[in-house]
Amino acid sequence: LGNTLALWQSHLRRLLAYSSVAHAGYMLIGLAAAAAMQQQGLDGTWAVASVVFYALAYAVATVGTFAVLAAWDQPPGRVERVDDLAGVACSHPGLAMALAVLLFSLAGIPPLVGFWGKFGLFYAAVETARESQSPQITTWFVVLAIVGVLNAAVAAAYYLRIIGSMFFREPSGQMAQPAGGAVCGAWAALGLVVLLGLVPRMALTQARSGARELIHSQTQVTQAEAPALLSSQPNSPPSAH
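Below the sequence we write its predicted structure tokens.
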């Protein structure tokens, strides 16, 4: 739904808001996979780790994207719609390239970090389908993985529309000269997107370690609460003979 609404948007921030709904949907795939694995007594560490890693990848790329827009959104020109970015690569090629890379990451284009984030979530869904002993769960997660991939293709369309406006259209007006903290934030986010995409192992290892500890602590809490829950249940009345 989020990708479908974003596809027809021309207002930049509204488009990114609708796309965030789609990104939340991707993360729900990982959470559903973790819940299904745990329910069946299987190891759901990878599913939880994939959600954590995807949240990191999405957060970094989104912060960088809004930082670029904030750097440009000042007098004499305002940046509110996709058309306002027309031809900006001619006057600000560096920031335009940075925004393009950040949008490519949000779209899940390899080898950027967004690709590994989506790959991890879809792999978690496929792994849940493969490990599950229930035909219904297997079918559902295969369908989820396919729908997720198709949605990623739809998302690429509206991200590419923004990039195309920047690089393949004539300038629509005068743009402000970007400076300050927004520019620094954009370049920092760009560096993380590229670095984590080229070397994702470190972040994935940390995400798996955190997921393992989270699952272990949840298991301990459940085991500790079980005797208390059993003792709190009323004794059943004696059966009549």
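The chain is about 75% helix and 0% strand.
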